[in-house]
Amino acid sequence: MKGTAAFCFMLALLLAWPLAGGAAQDGPEIVTFQGKGRLGTVDFTHREHHELGIACLMCHHTGVEAGRCSGCHGVIDEAPRLQNAFHLLCTGCHKQKGGPATCGGCHLLLQEEEQ
Ligand code: HEC
Ligand code: HEC
Ligand code: HEC
Ligand code: HEC
């Protein structure tokens, strides 16, 4: 019986591990925005951005549990349109801290055009 209890405890630990390990809590490794039309997708290195030292709340400004940006932006009047919100946040920081700030730096099909 003791052995079974110990086994169950180990199993519970193993099952909890992925959550405790942070992989799930830190959100996706990459977020791919589909965009529409000729701009192509934007591949956002989500995990890498957090590892640069940017706090979750810097981007998830109403809290991570509030869910996707599109839950409010483009939905409630006070929130800027989704596209404007992304450009303000993403390009705003890049201009100061040195990430890509030209259209093709993020929109992958434009990248081909700009080259
Ligand atoms: C730092 C990254 C970044 C830069 C630089 C950037 N964008 Fe975006 N842009 C985004 C993201 C992220 C979205 C949201 C994509 C979505 O909703 O699918 C977006 C959305 C858009 C959209 C609406 C979605 C679409 O595919 O039509 C347009 C239009 C757009 N950007 C144009 C531009 C133009 C023009 C420039 C250059 C002046 C530019 N962007 C620079 C990240 C960027
Ligand atoms: C540089 C900005 C930025 C940072 C830093 C950041 N995130 Fe995100 N995160 C985003 C964006 C943008 C999305 C895509 C949201 C969307 O599609 O509406 C996202 C998506 C997510 C999602 C998936 C949401 C869903 O419902 O699909 C989770 C979970 C998440 N982030 C958690 C976190 C956590 C936890 C941290 C800190 C460890 C963090 N993020 C740091 C910008 C960021
Ligand atoms: C629960 C609703 C809600 C969610 C979710 C949300 N926002 Fe917002 N956001 C707002 C509202 C309302 C405003 C305008 C008032 C303010 O600045 O707080 C705003 C303002 C902003 C601004 C400031 C625009 C400016 O004028 O400087 C940016 C940038 C922004 N949001 C980006 C994001 C991004 C990126 C996400 C997803 C990671 C997100 N927001 C998720 C409601 C939300
Ligand atoms: C608070 C600052 C900050 C914010 C907010 C931010 N970035 Fe960045 N980003 C950076 C920095 C700094 C780099 C350069 C990293 C490097 O060179 O190692 C970068 C690099 C990138 C790159 C180049 C490839 C890569 O991943 O290294 C892309 C694409 C990118 N960011 C997209 C985005 C998008 C899309 C958003 C908004 C959803 C965003 N970033 C928000 C700081 C930021």
Structure description:
The chain is mainly alpha-helical. The chain has one domain (26-114): Cytochrome C3, CATH 3.90.10. It has helices at 2-20, 46-51, 56-59, 82-97, 103-106, 108-114, and strands at 31-33, 42-44. Strands 1-2 form a two-stranded antiparallel sheet. The longest helix has 19 residues, at 2-20. The relative contact order is 0.11. Mean pLDDT is 83; it is low at 8-23. It binds heme C (4 copies). One heme C (HEC) binds next to β2, α2, α3 and α4.
Descriptive labels:
115 residues; mainly alpha; Cytochrome C3; 5% strand; binds heme C
SSE topology:
Blueprint: H1 2-20, E1 31-33, E2 42-44, H2 46-51, H3 56-59, H4 82-97, H5 103-106, H6 108-114
Antiparallel strand pairs: 1-2
The structure holds heme C (HEC) (4 copies).
Fourth-tier CATH superfamily name:
Cytochrome C3
Radius of gyration over C-alpha positions, nearest whole angstrom: 20 Å
CATH architecture label: Alpha-Beta Complex
Largest sheet: number of strands, sense, barrel closure: 2 strands, antiparallel
Please give the order of strands in the largest beta sheet: 1-2
Helix content: 40-55%
What's the level 1 CATH class? Alpha Beta
Count of DSSP-assigned helices: 6
Q: What is the CATH topology? A: Cytochrome C3
- What's the count of strands? 2
Order of helices and strands: HEEHHHHH
Report the portion of residues in β strands. 5-15%
Taken from the alpha-carbon principal axes, the silhouette is globular
Bound molecules: heme C
Total domains: 1
Question: Span between N and C termini?
Answer: 68 Å
Based on helices, strands and strand pairing, what is the structural class?
Answer: mainly alpha
Weakly predicted, low-confidence segments: 8-23
Overall mean confidence score, pLDDT: 83
